[in-house]
Amino acid sequence: MQATMTNLDFSKNTQSNPPLRIISLGGFGTVTANMFVYELQDDILLIDCGIGFPTKEMLGVDILIPDFSYLKDKIHKVKGLILTHGHEDHIGALPYILPQIPNVPVYASKFPAHLVMAKLAEYQNMPKTIKVLEPGTLLQLGKFSITSVRISHSIPDSTNLIIQTPVGTIYHGSDFKIDFTPLDGVLPELGKIADAGNKGIHLLLSDSLGSDKPGFTNSEKSLNDMFEREITHCDGKFIMTTISSSISRLSQVIGTATKLGRRVAISGRSMERNIKVALELGYLKVPDGVFVNLKEVRKMPAKSVCILMAGSGGQVESALGRLALGEHRDVEIKPGDKILFSSSIIPGTESAVEALIDMLFERGANVVRPGSVDDQHVSGHPCQQELLLMMNLTKPKYLLPMGGSYRHMVLYSQLAQSMGYSADKILLPKYNQTIEVYPDTVKVGSTLEIHKVMVDGLGVGDVGETVLRDRQMLAKEGMVVVVVEAKQLDLSQTENVEIISRGFVFAKQNTSLLTQAGDLIKKELSKRAGKLNHEHQVREIVIETLERYFFDKTGRRPMILPVVVEV
Question: What are phi and psi of 44, to 5 degrees?
C-alpha cells in the first residue's frame, strides 16, 4: 500500500503547478449524499459515496445519489475510493457508482468494509471485495498519502482522514463526535490528531451539523436509563426504530430488553443484514436464546417481545411503513404497543416521518416521537465545544465546514471567528462551487454543473426537473384526457370528442363543464377547415383551447393529454 510520492515543486502558485481541487459531488451545504473529489493534476482521490433523501416535492423519487458526470471522462485518473464509515449517506450510492468505476480499489476500515460487501452481495455484477484499511496504515494513492484515524461516531470503526499532498496536509473530518465513554471502549485517537496538527494542517474539512448546539454531545451510554424506563413502562410489544447501522444503539436496547425479560425479533432487510455482520465480526455480542424468529411473535405474550424495526426515515416501503399501513405480514399493532424512535429526523424526510407517525397513532400505538423525550436519542455529530476542540487539535490555517446545511456552515464560521480565525480563512462555498488549495492559500474556485441525480425505481437520472414538474402538476391540478375522433381527409371535422377527467373534476358532477369543453374544441377545429394536415396541429389547438377555458371556469390548470384518432 505504500509507494514513493512523485517529487514536484509546488512552492509557487503558477499555471504549471495547478491547485488541488476539492469538489463535493453531492453539493456543499447538504447533509447527505456525501462524495468528495480530491483532484491534483492526473490523480484523483474519492472519499465516500452516499445517498441523499428526496424532499416531499420530488414525487415518486426513492433516493438521491451524487452527480458522477464530472468524473465520466476522468475515470482513468481515479486512484482509489475511501469510505470513512458505514452510514448510508456515505456508502449507500455504491451500487450505482461502482459500475462506472469497475477497476478502482475501494478502501474502508473493518466494519464498514464488511457492511458494504454484504450490501453489494445483493446486486449482480458488483465487486464483492472491499480492501480493509486499518487505522494508522499509510496508504499511497498517486500524489495522495492517506492515514486514517479512529474517531467516535454512532457506528463502529468510524474514521477521519489525514491526507498529505504536495500542496499541504488536509484533515478530512467527516461525521464525528468526541465521546470519552464509548460503548465499545474504543476511544477517538486524539493524540494522533494532535500530532498531525503539530506537524501542520493546511486545511481542515470539518463536520458542522451540530454547530448550532452548545456544549458537548452526550455519550451513547447516556441512553441506558431511557431504554430501561421506556421498556419497563410498556404493557405491550416494544418496538424500537433507529438507523439500521447504529450498532451501539441496537446493542443497548437488546441488552436492556433481555435484562427485562423480553426476547428480540428483527424486522427489515437492512436491519437484519447489519446485525448479522455485526454479530459475525464480534461488534455485537448477544447471548444464545435472545433472538426469536419474527414469525413467532404472534404466538408470544406481547409484554415478552421487543422488535427492532427498520424505517426510522419514514420510508413507506420499509418494515415500519408496512406496519403503519397495516400490511406487515408478521406484526400487528395492538393496544399497549409502544414504538420508540431513537433517532433524529434526517433533513428532507420531515414530512414522511410525521405522516408515518400519524398513521401509527391511528392504529393505536403509543409513539415516542423524535424529540418528544429529551433523552431518547444522542447525536453522532459534534456540538460547539467538540468543534472547538477539533480546531485546537488540528490548528489548521484554513477551515471548510461540511456535512451540514448552509446555515450550519455559517454558524461554524462564526464559531471559528470566536477562536480568532479571520473570516477570510473560513471557506463557505455555495452548492456547486469548488475549492482550490495552493501551498500558500486556499480559496473558493470555479462553479460546476452539479445536479441532484434522482433514482426512481430502476431508473437512475431519467427523472429530471421536467418530469418532476409534470408529477407536481398531476398531483396538484389533475389530468384531462381528450380523445378527438377526426375525419382522415379533413382533421378539422370531428365525429366525436370524449373528455376524461382524473384528479381534476368529478365527471358526474361536472357534466356541463366537460360537455361545453368538447363543444368548444369542435368549434375551434371547424374554424380551420382545410388547414389541418397533421395530428400535432390538432393536439396544439386542443391544449391551447382547454388550458384557457378550464382556467377561466375553475382557476386551475390540469395537465391536458390530447389523443387524435383518425376515422
Answer: -130, 130
* 319 in a structural domain: yes
Q: What is the CATH number of the domain that holds 202?
A: 3.60.15.10
Within this chain, do residues 304 and 353 fall inside the same structural domain, yes or no? Answer: yes
pLDDT at 441 over 90: yes
Last residue of a domain, one of 368, 395, 426: 368
Which of 387, 17, 307 lies closest to 165 in space, CA to CA?
A: 17
Query: 114, 172, 381, 408: which is the annotated catalytic residue?
Result: 381
185-199, pLDDT tens digit by residue?
899 999 999 999 999
Q: Angle at CA 371, nearest 5°, toward 271 and 263?
A: 40
Could you read off the pLDDT of 522-533 as tens digits, one per residue? 888 888 877 787
Contact by Cβ (8 Å): 190, 220: no
Q: Residues 207, 377, 408, 456: which is the catalytic one?
A: 207
d(CA 99, CA 80): 14
- For residue 510, how far is the Cα from the chain centroid? 44
Q: Annotated catalytic, 328?
A: no
534 is catalytic: no
Shared domain for 408 and 342, answered yes or no, is no
Residue 115 sits in the same domain as residue 152: yes
Which residues constitute the domain of residue 503?
478-566
Cell of 304: 415478552
Q: pTM for this structure?
A: 0.81
Number of alpha carbons in the 13 Å side-chain half-sphere of residue 25: 27
